Amino acid sequence: MVEKINEYIYMAKLAEQMERYEDMTEYMKKIIELSKDLKDEERNLLSIAYKNAVGQRRTAWRAIYAYEMKEKTKVSKFYFKFF
Hints:
This protein is mainly alpha-helical and 83 residues long. The chain is built from three helices and no strands.
């Protein structure tokens, strides 16, 4: 069991270096399933994984929202040209 946890920690660190935070969260979930008590390093990796996974989604959401607002202003400008 300890070997498996060490393997998942290694894979989580590798995923972090590649900025693959979704994969990192999956490895951290596996660690939690094997060991309910997390050490400081494991808790830190879990925090990094979720913080960055959520951050990527938040950035994508902001980009989509900005694009939608830009398109709405284009439509509004086009509509008001004719009236």
